[in-house]
DUF6576 domain-containing protein
Amino acid sequence: MSLMPFISIAVIAVFVYVVFFAGKNNSGLSKRSGKKYYTIDDEFNAKKKEKQEKVDRILEKINAKGVESLTSQEKAILDEYSSSN
């Protein structure tokens, strides 16, 4: 009995598995930078919330220490946020 037909079938089966199943995200989740989002809306809302929290921290700093205490990066974040809303 020859092993050649068995080996051929095994190779084809592995190829089919790799092409159709391996590497697919079967959970339906979108992954970006290690974070998990369930839908595009969830991703958008998470990024919006993150941006809002960053702006809130900057505004709290202004309240506590004044506008002069802001770095140029913080000023740029506020400018970007004010122009987008």
Observations:
- The longest strand covers residues 30-32.
- The chain has a mean pLDDT of 81.
- Residues 40-65 form the longest helix (26 residues).
- The helical segments are 4-20, 40-65, 72-84.
